[in-house]
Design goal:
By secondary structure, the protein is an alpha+beta fold. Helix content is 33%, strand content 38%.
């Protein structure tokens, strides 16, 4: 039915009329968009390489997101910065629910795990 292809695409086998491939960047962007829609999320944060790329002008929604495929499900790791004054646990749970719902709605992919790492607090107002 579905399998992970080596060139960073998720393949869904069709009913004989072809197949559908979804690139990892597409899945990461969907996850990023879902995260930024959650109230209390200041920004996505990532590793140092992605931070340098963002400072050089290439800002994308996949920053701080790692997607791994496990059978017919996806495992997502998200790194965010939360705005000051928001409950970190509540924001994290809302991120998990929003990502799960959005991925299922837009791609049909089910999430096995959604890990949220809060890497900082945004004190800017």
């Amino acid at each position: 039915m579905a399998e992970n292809v080596k060139d960073n695409k998720y393949t869904i086998e069709g009913d004989g009329s072809g197949f559908i491939q979804i690139a990892d960047d597409v899945v990461s962007s969907i996850v990023g968009l879902a995260c930024t829609e959650v109230e209390g999320v200041a920004r996505l944060t990532g590793n140092i390489t992605r931070d340098l790329v963002a400072k050089l002008g290439k800002n994308n929604l996949s920053k701080g997101i790692i997607v791994q495929y496990e059978d017919d499900k996806v495992k997502v790791d998200v790194s965010v910065e939360v705005k000051f004054g928001y409950n970190i646990v509540d924001v994290s749970k809302e991120i998990q629910e929003k990502v799960k719902t959005t991925l299922l709605t837009m791609t049909g992919l089910e999430c096995s795990v959604i890990n949220v790492k809060v890497s900082g607090i945004d004190f800017a107002e």
